């Protein structure tokens, strides 16, 4: 492997062109510009080139191999061999999504992948940034017009070349006088000098704006691919309104017609830079991923993983309290129902397949209920949960007719075959001043009353969960107490006629579950609640009709595992446990 230099960069360039990755690290100009901070070493072969980058006092990391897709396998094999021989970590960084997917498909369960969110390239439409046309460009257009109005006849745009070099250096010194110079700014300054000192030898271009004879803005760019230009550096006097917009617009006006996109690199995780790049309306962001050759494994949970499982639960389900988490892991969590995707000692993601008995067309059916779906934040966006869910669905194929799932984002699971099957209606009750009927409300005293009402209510429903007395005593009532929910039973003629699970806030009253004996009982219960001063929301089955505004909502997804037709009518389920 040899260090990339001004003397040999052209040896690597043809291979980079073959790969056509469109991401800004895959550019010899980028590599040379930042060589004082990130040295690049490479080797070429007949069909591919491999390269790694190394920061001072850091271990080297590999870049994607440079070749056509059909030579990637041998290129990655070469990287592996070199890593083993020279004691370099077999890690590939700055990967595009397309390359990451290829790596995962080619080497299943062999690489640990993570999303480098702060390293995403911002890509813009060249014509949009050049013409500033359209509603999205209105603010930028206004700034540019303000620049023209103030400096018309006083500014001139010039091509970046040897004649402008010393003026650029002078402007850099001025620009840096307002900055706290750190390693990154020093390395950038070194890189700019390197590029401009060799402007005739390197494939760079750019422009400058002079105002009243003084350089006030410049940029440096190079072609990243056949249809994309990359902006390496862009500096302007921030005191001059619209100048940043002007230097980009005027430079883009000089480009050939085949340039369609502008790559403005990443935001480095800096909030102000992220906002500025986002405000420019990118057409896309090029995702970047890192990888390490580290085996993945799907396994059933055991006691050794409980602490990490609970930690991930607390991290990802922040609405849970310490008390509710303790309740869940004592009463509901079972190791045999929990699947993990792990890499060495690291928990990547998890889910649970808790068994639930559903009454379907009058028959009890045992089905899995997917809950506790969580991914370590460091590995979100890498496809790991999809990998684990597909595995989980295979394990229950042939053992159950369908799978149930609840989610915060229903759309995420549609690609796995889940359908928004169960619905409920959230009613905002119309306030009433009429006196309520003669029934009374009592706090629950006997769990048997709740079970009796529930079973009677469900006689007219389908797809409901089978509950028993133990469920109400050991799960339902303790869970309500944890969340400060009130369980109130409605009585008429000394008989329980319905119950509600009630949550109170300062302005609202929310009925999370409403079970009633018949239509008359429902209307009496709602008439009472409608007299509340607070706004009242009630979650009801789809057949119920009350006075107020209705909003249908999905409450459960279903994935069919056999050819049996799932019923559509009178479906009811209300499960959070």
TrEMBL record:
Domain annotation N-acetyltransferase: ranges: 296-447
- EC number of this enzyme: 2.3.1.-
Fetch the Pfam families from UniProt: Acetyltransf_9 (PF13527), LPG_synthase_C (PF09924)
Kindly indicate whether the keyword Electron transport belongs to this entry.
no
Ranges annotated as spanning the membrane = none
Record-linked PROSITE patterns: GNAT (PS51186)
SUPFAM superfamilies noted in UniProt: Acyl-CoA N-acyltransferases (Nat)
InterPro entries found in the cross-reference section: Acyl_CoA_acyltransferase (IPR016181), GNAT_dom (IPR000182), LPG_synthase_C (IPR024320), UCP018688 (IPR016732)
- Key words of the record: Acyltransferase, Transferase
Under the GO molecular function aspect, what terms does this record hold? acyltransferase activity, transferring groups other than amino-acyl groups
Task: Determine if Transferase is one of this entry's keywords.
Answer: yes
Q: What is this protein called?
A: GNAT family N-acetyltransferase
């Amino acid at each position: 492997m040899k260090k990339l230099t001004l003397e040999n960069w052209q040896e690597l360039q043809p291979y980079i062109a073959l790969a056509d990755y469109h991401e800004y690290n895959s550019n010899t100009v980028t590599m040379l510009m930042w060589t004082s901070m990130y040295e690049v070493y490479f080797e070429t072969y007949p069909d591919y080139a491999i390269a790694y980058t190394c920061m001072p006092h850091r271990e080297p990391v590999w870049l994607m191999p440079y070749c056509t897709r059909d030579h990637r396998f041998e290129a990655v094999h070469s990287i592996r061999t070199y890593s083993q021989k020279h004691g370099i970590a077999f890690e590939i960084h700055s990967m595009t999504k397309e390359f990451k997917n290829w790596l995962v498909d080619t080497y299943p369960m062999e690489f640990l992948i993570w999303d480098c969110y702060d390293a995403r390239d911002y890509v813009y439409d060249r014509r949009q940034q050049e013409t500033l046309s359209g509603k999205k460009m209105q603010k930028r257009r206004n700034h540019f017009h303000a620049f023209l109005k103030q400096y018309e006849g006083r500014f001139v745009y010039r091509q970046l070349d040897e004649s402008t070099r010393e003026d650029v250096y002078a402007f850099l010194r001025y620009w840096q006088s307002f900055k706290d110079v750190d390693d990154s700014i020093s390395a950038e300054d070194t890189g700019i000098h390197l590029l401009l000192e060799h402007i005739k030898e390197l494939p760079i271009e750019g422009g400058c704006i002079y105002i009243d004879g003084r350089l006030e803005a410049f940029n440096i760019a190079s072609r990243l691919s056949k249809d994309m230009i990359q902006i390496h550096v862009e500096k302007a006097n921030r005191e001059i309104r619209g100048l940043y917009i002007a230097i980009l617009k005027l430079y883009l006006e000089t480009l050939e017609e085949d340039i369609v996109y502008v790559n403005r690199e990443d935001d480095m995780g800096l909030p102000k830079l992220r906002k500025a790049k986002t405000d420019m309306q990118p057409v896309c962001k090029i995702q970047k991923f890192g990888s390490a050759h580290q085996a993945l494994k799907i396994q059933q949970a055991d006691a050794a993983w409980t602490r990490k499982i609970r930690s991930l639960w607390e991290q990802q389900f922040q609405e849970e309290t310490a008390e509710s988490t303790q309740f869940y892991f004592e009463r509901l969590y079972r190791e045999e129902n929990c699947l993990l995707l792990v890499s060495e000692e690291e928990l990547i993601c998890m889910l649970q397949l808790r068994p639930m008995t559903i009454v379907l067309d009058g028959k009890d059916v045992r089905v899995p209920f997917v809950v506790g779906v969580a991914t370590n934040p460091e590995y979100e966006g890498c496809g790991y949960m999809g990998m684990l869910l597909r595995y989980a669905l295979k394990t229950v194929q042939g053992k159950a007719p369908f799978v149930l799932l609840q989610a915060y984002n229903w759309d995420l699971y549609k690609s796995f075959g889940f359908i928004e099957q169960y619905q409920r209606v959230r009613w905002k009750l119309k306030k009433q001043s009429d006196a309520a009927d003669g029934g009374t409300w009592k706090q629950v005293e006997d769990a048997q009353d709740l079970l009796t009402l529930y079973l009677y209510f469900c006689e007219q429903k389908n797809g409901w969960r089978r509950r028993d007395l133990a469920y109400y005593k050991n799960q339902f009532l303790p869970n309500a107490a944890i969340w400060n929910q009130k369980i109130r039973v409605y009585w008429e003629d000394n008989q329980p006629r319905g119950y509600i699970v009630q949550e109170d806030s300062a302005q609202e009253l929310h009925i999370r579950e409403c079970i009633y004996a018949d239509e008359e009982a429902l209307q009496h219960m709602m008439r009472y609640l409608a007299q509340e001063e607070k706004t009242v929301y009630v979650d009801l089955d789809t057949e119920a009709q009350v006075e107020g505004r209705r909003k249908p909502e999905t409450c459960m997804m279903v994935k069919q595992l056999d050819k049996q037709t799932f019923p559509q009518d009178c479906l009811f389920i209300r499960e959070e446990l």
